[in-house]
């Protein structure tokens, strides 16, 4: 419950009280809310008011946060732990999870909160130079006029000068083979100094396994460097969706069950459904 949202509730509550005619009349129209409590909120004496009570009032007066509120889902906790391990100990991991499971948001939150961690959202059209350009740009390094070799040397130099750096390659399955091989080069030149995380849907694990069976160049090396193991995320659970709903002002069981049933395990769909319910309230 942020200060910004509390102020938003307070403003909406003032309008609500004015519409009802008085704090007593407003309190009588709200379940489990006293006039004293409303007075405390309006007068700014609300340090002892719980987040649950704030959400209760917000729901009843139809006040929803203008900012989407995230929660720590099961996969968020797994991802955070894996990335912290990779960064602290210069380990290399590969994570796979369904689209819409919150991977990208988890990576963004991690990099915002952890120094020397760099997130790349990969794309199919990247060639080797574009990959290095994107990485240097994310690291804040001026790469103008550099050749591919000079770019790679600059990346290695920069990362080796930092304490516990981490590279996160999101949607790594989109990278063509010629670019994916750079993972091997980065690993070889930064081994025991820089953590690396490859992240994608299960298409990445299937691609690597198929490449190994077909004896394609580089695939056995990639598999070896990730420890011959893919960390599979759990996906979105009912508990996760319940917490997201409550954080964003939806706390009745019927609506939560409906959102879960219609979510198909996709948090993007969950967000749209919650916003649709908010608009109907």
TrEMBL record:
- What UniProt keywords apply to this chain's record, in alphabetical order? ATP-binding, Nucleotide-binding
Q: Which Gene Ontology molecular-function terms are recorded?
A: ATP binding; ATP hydrolysis activity
The source's superkingdom equals Bacteria
All residue ranges annotated as the ORC1/DEAH AAA+ ATPase domain in the record:
88-207
Query: What SUPFAM superfamilies does its record include?
Result: P-loop containing nucleoside triphosphate hydrolases
Keyword Endoplasmic reticulum included in the entry's annotation: no
Q: Which InterPro entries match?
A: AAA_22 (IPR049945), ExeA_AAA_ATPase_DNA-bind (IPR052026), P-loop_NTPase (IPR027417)
**Protein name (database record):** ATP-binding protein
Q: What is the lineage of its organism?
A: Bacteria, Pseudomonadati, Bacteroidota, Flavobacteriia, Flavobacteriales
